[in-house]
Amino acid sequence: MQPTEPQRRNIVSNATAVHEHTNRLAREKSPYLLQHQHNPVDWYAWGEDAFAKARAEDKPIFLSIGYSTCHWCHVMERESFENQELADYLNQHFVSIKVDREERPDVDKIYMTFVQAMTGQGGWPLNVFLTADLKPFYGGTYWPPEAKYGRPSFLQVLNQINKAWHDRRDQLTGSSTNMHEQLVKLTSREATNGASLGEDILKHSGEALKENYDPTYGGWGTQPKFPSPSHPAFLLRYGKRYKDQEAVDMVLHTCERMASGGIYDQIGGGFSRYSVDRKWLVPHFEKMLYDNAQLLNLYLDSFLVSGDEGYADVARDIIRYLLRDMTHPDGGFYSAEDADSEGKEGKFYTWTRGDLAKILTPEEFNVATKYFGVTQKGNFVDHSDPEPLPDQNVLSIADTNVPASDMPLLLSAKEKIFTTRSKRVRPHLDDKVLASWNGLMLGALARASVVLGEDSYRVAAEKNFKFLTEKLWDARTKTLYHRWRDGERDSVQLLEGYSYLLAGALELYQVTLEPRQLEFCVALADSMLEKFYDPAEGGFWQTPRDAAHLILRIKEDHDGAEPSGNSVAILGLLKLGAITEKKEFRDAAEKSLRLFADRMRQMPQGVPYMLMALDFSLEEPKRVVLAGDVRSETGKSLLRAVHGVYQPNKVVLSTSGLVEPFAKTLQPMDGKPTAYVCTGTACQPPTHDPMKVTESLK
């Protein structure tokens, strides 16, 4: 069921098109920047060329941040950045800069914090006006071409900024200086290294995170509704630790309802970004690697906790989608797929009754339309489109009572729908490979290989690891770069890249027990500490000490759609410290947890991944040491048993390589692979029996 490449629409290049304009973004590699290469706006990429021009010509900077699969970014481009009159105005009065937020989350974080502080909300496109020294003085998100939605028109905003720049310069520069001081205060973290870190934080946080649960549809809040995987992942840990079945049931119910909704691609697998409604029915159709990687882990956990094969099936479908549609031939994972195709949101995914009647037999049609809730009127209208497609249906599971005799008809119908859909023009693919998001997927895929007993997943994970270490890692300088695309890597280093890849590579090591993978983890962690760690106060900066052109260095600590670099770094170092017994790893992690102690107490909803790190830190983790040939059938059975138990506070290691000294003293018994389940230097009796390993971990 592999779509043919001609159907994949990649809107960053079109060799046959004739363009009136081509600007300097044509030299960039970012798919988002390349989307804007033919705008009449005289765009610059983020860098000294643009800043020097602003200084030389005494102009304010117009900074526009987005990403290639952002629906409202596309809308603003069509309405404003392709408009010659607006472009002329921008070119005359401003220096315009485009930034891909996925490549430069460090730049995005600074100016998003400013806009959120100024307006109370944020989002993309993010549009900010700066002085030549990069300090912001005004900003917002989407501005329409004419005043509407209670917003001024984009041209009105530009006129007002230009007038203020010439008439009230002192006021603007004073405001920018003041705002910079406020940003420093907003993003600083006071050291709380005297704070105690105990179970009381976990108990309070679990109760707080249960609030605002939607008992009807699962999830938290009303609408739009986001999966936010770190939230249920922590709640599952909390529920199992404190035997709170209500918390566990909240997570399982949420996973079940999401997988039944339109946010889940019922035909091709994988999850969309979020649901615009409370029911998980109508998605914002873009698909992101980071969402699907985290949700894969969540569905694996739900399967282990419940034993319900339905969660395992969703996990397999996520992987099937990612390996089919989101993987570079050499093993890297692409970043995202757009919501739009042929200029219409959701067109690739939605169906009318007439569409289905053309491709299905009457018997298949009757079963499929009932199962997927397909109506004549439809359930989706793109209200941002002046000419929306009529009668469109997002497919969801509306009726689960399919008689066993009708299941062959449903499966046949799904196969035909997929085949027909594969011939449609696909949404744009953002084909850059990011170290950060690939790290998330690497770890989830490695886990899936043993949890689901599918060796091909391990092969794909190892191929991904090889891609990342060859394309983005410089072993000589111990430097990890963030983005690779079209044969080239960037020059950017980010905490998210280091910490996410550390987490992913650690999961891979615990599945394969290959010493060279552990060696990479240690080298990566050493470099992360050297480049990002604050030894004075604890915590990790988002950027290295020598990062250029940034008005702030931030210790990001918000676990939102993606976990923060600090949260992932802390948990990764705790696990690596337990495997290697390197004191510097655990010390840095614990000092960083203390830095964020007040944050965990006061705003647990904002740091669920960090709470998982705290949970891990509060007791000596179980260590499962496997001695002998782990690639033998017995070794594989023992590994599957180890990973087949929901026991998040454990590590798995072999007896060789950079492991802690005690593990090296353990030997295989009777020449067979042997498992030792240990806490400290106390171990359960060694065993070759997978069932005994399972019992020890439970």
Give a structural overview.
The protein has 698 residues and is α+β, with helices and mostly antiparallel strands. Mean pLDDT is 93; it is low at 1-17. Strand 6 and strand 7 (283-284) form a beta hairpin. It folds into four domains: 5-187, 3-Layer(aba) Sandwich (Glutaredoxin), CATH 3.40.30.10; 199-339 and 431-617, Alpha/alpha barrel (Glycosyltransferase); 349-423, no CATH class; 622-697, Glutaredoxin. The strands form seven sheets. The chain has a five-stranded mixed β-sheet with strand order 1-3-2-4-5, with helices on both faces. Strands 19-18-20-21 form a four-stranded mixed β-sheet, with helices on both faces. Helix content is 47%, strand content 10%.
* β-strand number: 21
Outline type? globular
Instruction: Assign the CATH architecture of the largest domain.
Output: Alpha/alpha barrel
Query: What is the count of structural domains?
Result: 4
Low-confidence stretches: 1-17
Query: What is the CATH class designation of the largest domain?
Result: Mainly Alpha
Give me the number of helical elements: 26
Structural class: alpha+beta
Report the biggest beta sheet as strand number plus sense, adding barrel if it closes.
Answer: 5 strands, mixed
Major sheet: arrangement of strands: 1-3-2-4-5
Strand residue percentage = 5-15%
Task: Note the gap between the termini.
Answer: 40 Å
CATH topology of the largest domain: Glycosyltransferase
